[in-house]
């Protein structure tokens, strides 16, 4: 609930319980959880969170924005997604789930078509 108070002559806006989130903050949280789950050897839970994170991706972030900030944030997000997709695929291979790895990597290639690392991994499968 947002409230406005003007007790001291100045109006102030107070946030009393509204929590705002973005797809990126959820993506970051899920990838952080995945790291912990993989360290704990909990592949099924890690896989679930990987898939939840990849489901958030609907294209390159800030796709039609060309300012310096958007370019640098887009590059950072896509680099992280590429690295996480590679980790996911390696985990799938270890756990005999090549089909799931191929499906996710194919989706990521649509978002990051210039990724030689992902393209090469798909070819090797």
Explain what the structure shows:
The protein has 125 residues and is mainly α. The protein has one domain: Serine Threonine Protein Phosphatase 5, Tetratricopeptide repeat. Helix content is 64%, strand content 6%. It has helices at residues 23-39, 43-55, 68-94, 98-111, 116-124; strands at 2-5, 12-15. A two-stranded antiparallel ribbon has the order 1-2. Helix 1 (23-39) packs antiparallel against helix 2, helix 2 packs antiparallel against helix 3 (68-94) and helix 4 (98-111) runs antiparallel to helix 5 (116-124). It is elongated and about 70 Å long. The chain starts with a strand and ends with a helix. 18% of the residues are buried.
Identify the notable features of this structure and list them briefly.
125 residues, elongated, mainly alpha, single chain, 6% strand, Serine Threonine Protein Phosphatase 5, Tetratricopeptide repeat, two-stranded antiparallel sheet
Write the layout of secondary structure elements.
Blueprint: E1 2-5, E2 12-15, H1 23-39, H2 43-55, H3 68-94, H4 98-111, H5 116-124
Antiparallel strand pairs: 1-2
Helix pairs in contact: 1-2, 2-3, 3-4, 4-5
């Amino acid at each position: 609930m947002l409230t406005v108070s003007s007790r001291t002559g100045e109006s102030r806006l107070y946030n009393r319980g509204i929590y705002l989130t973005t797809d990126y903050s959820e993506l970051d949280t899920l990838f952080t959880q995945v790291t912990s789950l993989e360290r704990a050897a909990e592949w099924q839970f890690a896989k679930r969170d990987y898939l939840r994170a990849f489901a958030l991706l609907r294209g390159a972030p800030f796709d039609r924005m060309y300012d310096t900030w958007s370019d640098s944030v887009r590059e950072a997000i896509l680099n992280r997604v590429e690295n996480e997709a590679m980790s996911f695929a390696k985990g799938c291979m270890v756990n005999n789930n090549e089909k799931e790895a191929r499906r996710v990597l194919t989706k990521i290639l649509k978002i990051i078509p210039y990724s030689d690392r992902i393209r090469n991994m798909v070819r090797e499968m």
